[in-house]
Amino acid sequence: MKNASNPSVQQFKAFIHEHPLLIKEIKSGNMSLQEAYEQYVLLGEEDPAWGKYKANHDKNESKDTTTNQLYQKFWKHIEKLDVNQVENHINDLNGAIDNIVTLIDQFKQFRNNQMGQSQSDNFFYKPKD
User: Fold this and answer.
1) Are the C-beta atoms of residues 48 and 76 closer than 8 Å to each other?
2) Residues 6+ away with beta carbon under 8 Å from 19
């Protein structure tokens, strides 16, 4: 219990929480808690050797830089777009959609006419029992 109040132990606890991969190393048995504490006391918090245990933080930073690069590329492509060409393509697409709607309407009318004629042709037809 004497060590629990020691400031270096408290600092080590805070340090170990900032390095989740170090906790995994200890839990997997690759390093004991005593060894980690001794290295912490000898090397200090700022030693580059601890960087490999902070991998989650580095991965998040690399994801952020990758995301930023993606956004930069996206905006470069947006800036290169010719608005007039985009408008022409949209108008062409709109015309094609209008043609498809007209074709569907004509098909429905044709089908309704066919159904109406077949029903009127058979108006007096009575099946025999």
Assistant:
1) no
2) 50, 53, 54
Helix axes 7-18, 20-28, angle to 10 degrees: 100
DSSP string, 7-31: HHHHHHHHHHHH-HHHHHHHHHTSS
Question: Do the Cβ atoms of 45 and 15 come closer than 8 Å?
Answer: yes
Give residue for tokens 């007209």: 102
pLDDT for the residue numbered 1 = 43
Distance CA 109, CA 111 (A): 5
Average pLDDT for consecutive 10-residue bins of the chain (129 residues)?
67 86 88 88 84 65 73 85 91 97 94 72 59
pLDDT of res. 57: 52
pLDDT of residue 12: 87
One DSSP character per residue, 44-64 reads -TT-GGGGGGGHHHHHHHHHH
Determine contact, residues 21/58, Cβ cutoff 8 Å: no
Q: How far apart, in Å, are the Cα atoms of 54 and each of 26, 40, 59, 65, 84?
A: 14, 14, 9, 17, 50
